[in-house]
Structures are given as structure tokens and as C-alpha cells.
TrEMBL record:
InterPro entries: HINT, Histidine_triad_HIT, HIT-like, HIT-like_sf. It comes from the Archaea. PROSITE patterns: HIT_2. A motif (Histidine triad motif) lies at residues 98-102. This is HIT family protein. Residues 6-113 form the HIT domain. Pfam families: HIT.
Length: 142
């Protein structure tokens, strides 16, 4: 537990949360400032700042919980779709530094936008630049 982490305090029961799923590793609860009805956060109970610091088995539990909850959340609020995403790191908009996946139910004409609208200007990358990025990412995993 990280003492000054809001989500660790929710896990510990020190701050109330509207829990929708819990097991030994994972907690899911309603977002206190929802972007839509049913906006749900899925977190590991242990404090890991972002996906990069999260052990693979724990990340797998978070993902499988997201997989279980997405249809339940959509059905509960009668949503035909959802945006499922992580703000992974401060520059990407992560405000709470305890890794969490968002399930944001989406509705017809909700005025929301797709992930493709995250940036204003897309980079104009050449085929060579794309090739270089491809091989760099492959090399990073070696
Ligand atoms: P982030 O920007 O870090 O990806 O998202 C953090 C989310 O946590 C926001 O959607 C925000 O509304 C939610 N949040 C922040 N503080 C609390 C809290 O104390 N309780 C709950 N349930 N959600 C919170
Ligand atoms: Zn934490």
C-alpha cells in the first residue's frame, strides 16, 4: 500500500467506494466523477503505478476482469458500446498513479469521440520511419 494513494485507501476501506467486483488481486468500483453512467475502474489491489511497473500475472488478472465486466457494465446501463482504456503515465493524462483500466459506457449521440481523436495532429511518418519503429519495438523485447 502507498499511504497517500487514493486507490490504495479505497482498497483498504479507508475511503468508501462503490465496489462492483472484488477478488484477492483485483478491485473494480464506480468512478466518483463518471464520464457516463456505469463508468467503472478496474485496479490491482497492490500499488503499481502504471502498466509498465505491473507484474505480468497481475496485469493479466486486471485484463481478465475487464473482459468479464465489460458486458456486465454495458448491460447494467443499457449501453450498446464502451470505451475501454488506460491512461498509462502522467503525460497520457493519468491523474491517479495507481494503474487502472477505465470502462466507459458509450451511447448513441453521447458526443464522445473515439481513441483516434486523442491527438490533434497525427505524425506523417514515412514507410522507412514506420519500418524503423517496427524493428526498434521488436528489439526492445529481446
Ligand atoms: P486517470 O485520469 O488517472 O486515468 O483517472 C482517474 C479517475 O479516478 C478519474 O476518472 C476520477 O474521476 C477517478 N477518481 C479520482 N478520485 C476518486 C475517488 O476518490 N474515488 C473514485 N471512485 N474515483 C476517483
Ligand atoms: Zn495505490
Amino acid at each position: 500500500m502507498s499511504e497517500d494513494c487514493i486507490f490504495c485507501q479505497i482498497v483498504a476501506g479507508d475511503i468508501p467506494g462503490r465496489t462492483v467486483y472484488e477478488d484477492d488481486t483485483v478491485l473494480a468500483f464506480l468512478d466518483a466523477n463518471p464520464l457516463s453512467p456505469g463508468h467503472t475502474l478496474v485496479i490491482p489491489k497492490d500499488h503499481h503505478e502504471r502498466l509498465n511497473n505491473t507484474p505480468a500475472d497481475v496485469a493479466g488478472e486486471v485484463l481478465s476482469t475487464l473482459h468479464e465486466l465489460v458486458p456486465a457494465v454495458e448491460s447494467a446501463v443499457d449501453a450498446p458500446a464502451s470505451t475501454v482504456a488506460f491512461n498509462n503515465g502522467e503525460v497520457a493524462g493519468q491523474e491517479v498513479p495507481h494503474v487502472h483500466g477505465h470502462i466507459i459506457p458509450r451511447f448513441e449521440d453521447d458526443g464522445g469521440r473515439p481513441i483516434h481523436a486523442l491527438v490533434n495532429d497525427r505524425p506523417d511518418l514515412s514507410e522507412d520511419e514506420l519500418d524503423a519503429i517496427e524493428s526498434d519495438i521488436v528489439a526492445e523485447q529481446a
